[in-house]
Specification:
This protein has helices at residues 62-69, 115-135, 208-219, 241-248, 259-275, 295-298, 364-381, 399-417, 421-431, 438-449, 462-467, 473-486, 572-588, 591-611; strands at residues 31-38, 44-52, 55-59, 78-81, 85-91, 95-100, 105-109, 170-172, 177-182, 189-194, 198-202, 224-229, 254-256, 299-301, 307-309, 315-319, 332-335, 340-348, 387-392, 491-501, 504-516, 522-527, 536-541, 546-547, 554-558, 564-568. It is an alpha+beta fold and 612 residues long. Strand 8 and strand 9 (177-182) form a beta hairpin.
């Protein structure tokens, strides 16, 4: 049921990824450390600073400092260009002040108030003063923000009042981080749990191609892959196992929480292989198929079924005592120190929930599912602000659990009362218009629970279809148009878009939404840190656009007018996802590519008719 996305993506030439900061990111910093920075709203923000060349660069999170200490310095979240600074002087409370020629001031102070903190501030003041003198009079090579003519608003100078990184793709705790790899097929997620040294991968996507992208992204990181954990036996959570085995060798363990989950993986793999729906490399190994994947040997039970402890520190709690819900057996994870819950497929975010053929038609499993969600809500109420990482869709809060309950209740009510698949799908789509995976997850779920009455519209059997005449040119044109409309690269997440201030370049947090505009053309609308998409900051048209390859978390989008938008995603995985989706959207805006897609659709249709 997957879409062949290769036919819709063209390789675009790389855009210019140059930045004035790049030459100064190699080698050691002059000095570095944590300081408090005062925002324009008067809030003190803890930031990790480095003095490099004429720039005072800073990052917001401990995870960034882990990478810095490992020698993997990425683009900072902001950089103060000291060539605009005319004076640095100490202030009260172990602080220092930078003053620009235009009269602007930036205030900093130490984390503590002891003698060592005062010495640290004195060192910072001295080193910054030396850099100001060294680079005084040099022309600035600051890159100005490449604003599109389509932008609706100008950017504010200082938007970064958050103490934490964006929640769209990564969540930062006190000891562990969780990063999202957003898969394309069925919008499924893989999650990366890190303590800065070890990496735990949770679930590994629906196909080998995306699993290879995941493996490539893991290799860009400094951590060592510790283990892979599969939450349940649905193929979109384990189909990448072989790729990870081939890429990282035989010593990386593949874990499940209990034997029922392992049996679920083996059972669905055998079932799908029998129907021809399984990639040959992931079909179960048998005497008849010795090249297959040996699930029985490769997948192991957790040594401690209730917890996973990473070698360099950090514990992840495992819960697997659920009744039969979305899957016959399922496990969720909770990071107690970080208040982050990986809910697997008990929770979706703006993606139609799977209620397909492996769920009985008596609604008992959906009832169990709703009870499990209510129990989770009750548990999390006492824990404060819990971040929820769903099996499908973006990170959110406990409200995602409430939304899943609402969806499941509406789904049951609809399939009980509707007379046809078409009517049920239309009603659910109307109630949840921005949910993804209509043609697969929703369609299969409705067909599983709603058995149409005799006389209702039925899909033709293969033998019936073979007897029908070949479609007319008009019908074939309609099918070509439908093929184009079925391709949907829509995507949204928080990213960091490069801009500028009076004192230097910076990356500002924006909600990027790749969508089809009102005129039918693909655009990227971006908003100022707003889940509700109420504060539009700009619009980038994808027609004629090119997208660079991802370089770690960085990539750039170049418009048809040759304006460059440098962008930083929250993780290498999300950067790869954005590059693929943007290139696909640009391809759909290309008339030649649209013609090719239509022609391929016709060829596929003709081949199917001949087989019939």
């Amino acid at each position: 049921m997957s879409r062949d996305r290769k036919a819709t993506v063209t390789k675009r030439p790389d855009a210019d990824m140059s930045s004035p900061l790049s030459p100064y990111l190699a080698g050691n910093a002059v000095t570095e450390g944590w300081l408090l920075k005062r925002s324009r709203k008067g809030k003190w923000q803890r930031r990790f600073f480095q003095l490099r060349g004429p720039y005072l660069m800073y990052w917001p999170t401990q995870a960034a400092s882990h990478k810095i200490k490992a020698g993997r310095v990425g683009m900072p979240d902001a950089a103060i260009d000291l060539r605009h600074i005319v004076e640095v002087h100490p202030s009260d409370e172990n602080g220092l002040v930078l003053s620009s020629a235009s009269g602007n001031q930036l205030q900093f102070k130490s984390i503590g108030a002891g003698a060592a903190d005062a010495e640290s501030v004195a060192q910072w003041t001295s080193k910054v003063a030396e850099a100001i003198e060294l680079f005084r009079g040099q022309a600035t090579d600051m890159v100005m923000d490449a604003h599109s003519e389509d932008e609706a608003h100008s950017e504010d100078e200082d938007d970064e009042d958050e103490d934490e990184p964006p929640a769209g793709a990564a969540e930062q705790g006190r000891g562990l981080t969780v990063e999202r790899f957003a898969g394309i097929e069925v919008s499924v997620n893989s999650w990366l749990v890190s303590n800065g040294s070890d990496l735990l991968v949770v679930d590994c996507l629906r196909n080998s191609k995306e699993a290879q992208d995941l493996a490539n992204a893991i290799k860009l990181r400094s951590e060592k892959l510790f283990a892979v954990f599969v939450t349940h036996g649905h193929p979109d959570h384990f189909m990448g196992l072989r790729v990870l085995r081939e890429e990282f060798g035989p010593d990386i363990p593949f874990y499940v929480a209990k034997d029922e989950i392992k049996q679920g993986v083996e059972g669905i793999a055998a079932y799908m292989a029998g129907l021809g729906w399984m990639e040959p490399a992931m079909a179960p190994k048998t005497p008849e198929a010795p090249e297959g994947f040996d699930y029985g040997t490769e997948i192991n039970l957790l040594p401690n079924p209730g917890a996973i402890t990473l070698p360099a520190g950090g514990t992840v709690e495992v819960k697997s005592d659920y009744p039969k819900t979305e899957a016959a057996a399922i496990a969720t994870l909770f990071l107690p120190e970080e208040n982050i819950a990986l809910m697997s497929d008990l929770c979706y975010n703006k993606v139609h929930h799977w209620c397909g053929p492996d769920l009985p038609e008596d609604f008992e499993r959906i009832d169990n599912w709703i009870i499990a969600l209510k129990d989770a809500i009750a548990t999390f109420e006492s824990k404060g602000d819990v971040k929820i990482c769903p099996g499908h869709g973006a990170i959110g809060g406990v409200e995602l659990l409430h939304e899943s309950i609402k969806y499941l209740e509406f789904f049951m009510e609809t399939v009980k009362s509707a007379e046809t698949h078409e009517a049920a799908m239309a009603k659910i789509i109307e109630a949840f218009p921005d949910y993804a995976e209509t043609e697969f997850l929703l369609k299969m779920s409705v067909e599983n629970f709603l058995k149409e009455t005799e006389g209702a519209a039925q899909e033709p059997r293969p033998s019936d279809a073979a007897q029908e005449p070949r479609p007319s040119d008009a019908a074939r044109a309609s099918k070509r148009l439908s093929a184009l409309e079925a391709i949907d690269p829509s995507f949204k997440s928080f990213v960091w878009k490069q801009g500028h201030t009076a004192l230097g370049v910076s990356f500002r947090r924006r909600l990027f939404v790749l969508e089809k505009g009102g005129d039918g053309h693909w655009v990227v609308n971006y908003y100022k840190d707003s889940e509700s998409q109420a504060n539009l900051k700009g619009c980038i048209r994808m027609k004629g656009a090119t997208v660079s390859d991802a370089d770690g978390t960085h990539f750039s989008l170049t418009t048809n007018e040759k304006k460059v938008f440098p962008i930083r995603a929250e993780s290498p995985m999300e950067a790869l996802t954005w590059v693929g989706r943007m290139r696909e959207a640009a391809s759909l805006e290309d008339p030649k590519m649209a013609h090719t897609i239509s022609r391929l659709a016709v060829q596929e249709e003709g081949a199917e008719e001949q087989e019939g």
